[in-house]
Amino acid sequence: MMKAQEMRRPTGMTGQERNLSDNMVTTTVSTDTSSRTPVIPHGKKTSDTIMTAFIVLTLLIAGVVLALTAKSIFFSSDADARTMPTAAESFMGSRQSQMSFTPFDVELAKRFMDKDNDGTCDSCGMPVEMCIESGQLQCNMDSSSTMGILGSQHIHADWKIDINGKQLDLSDKDHMGRMGSGLTVSSFIHVDSGAPEPEKTGDVLHMHGTGIPLWIWFESVGMKFDKDCLEVGSGKKFCTDGANTLKFIVNGKLNSQYEQYVFHDLDKILISYGPQNENVDEQFASITNFALVHQPKTATPLTAAAMVSRSPASLPPVSSPSASSSPITIKLPANIQSSAPMKFSSVEEEIQYMTQNAQNPQNIDVEKAIRNMDANLDGVCDTCGMAILHCIEGGMEDM
Hints:
This protein has about 400 residues and is α+β, with helices and mostly antiparallel strands. The chain folds into three domains: about 65-150, no CATH class; about 155-330, no CATH class; about 340-399, no CATH class. The chain contains 13 helices and ten strands. The protein has helices spanning about 15-30, 40-75, 80-85, 85-90, 105-115, 130-135, 175-180, 215-220, 280-285, 305-310, 345-355, 365-375, 390-395, and strands at about 155-165, 165, 190, 205, 225, 230-235, 235-240, 245-250, 255, 270-275. Strands 1, 2, 3, 4, 8, 9 and 10 form a seven-stranded mixed β-sheet that branches. A three-stranded antiparallel β-sheet has the order 5-6-7. Helix 11 (about 345-355) crosses helix 12 (about 365-375).
């Protein structure tokens, strides 16, 4: 059957013929509707198009929101990572320090807590990474553990390493410098740089956790120390033999703990290699007193009596089996010569003290420095917590 649109009226038809033709067209169209595609109204098409576009746009927006949410959860910035607690911290408690584990610390923690390398702590059974994230070097659920979490304390000791009468240079062993250079170092025990002169890098040993033995520092910087030998890197070893001995002296006394020693706040430590009969009095006396100026502001003020109790003046002299020596004495800093903590009665009194005791002071206004940095007149900088004397010696009038 022909479609309606293909039918044409012949020309020259009469009125009756035209009517008959129209009827045929109508009949033809009406009988063919079952096989034709329905005609959709124009308004209906527009509505469906708008609805489809709206659905597509909604899906796109939802995709973008989902992607941003995933990024904030799984790819947060370093700043977010530092401020948001980790899963381990939520479970075990917050870290007590802003310092972080170095790669050396991570590997050491795994040596302590995951001896079978299965990824879980041998003591508590949790993922070892969670123990590390919570600041643990040794699992605190292990009854035999002796080391506290990172930041459980912050103490200092003055020390010195002498080899054949010459002080070992530790200027390349500072914490931040080695981290920046990709060299091994520990956050738990280290030496720092950047203190005001005359303090040098390596004069003061810092401990940022309880129970941290000396061997961790030596291993962290590629050295080794025990009762027999001192290894300083590059294959150089200094070992006890028939002519020379390795001596370990703490607060004026020979100490047999060597690398296992855990120092106390304000200890004075000397590691000396040299002739067996060598008198080390001068070496010990040359150890600095800078640990004192690193004391935090919240620390209990140190009295002269407390300092003297740690002084070798009250201890037996250092001696070796075949050597005799006079007692070692420590020159106490001027601020602890009295029997009470340092406290000035006036700005003028503190100015007088600083003027008399500052070593190589810069051309600065001492009064201005005191008024700006020591409102308490306690000899300690209100901002950095160091002795105001060293701030002045470093040329600072304000922080």
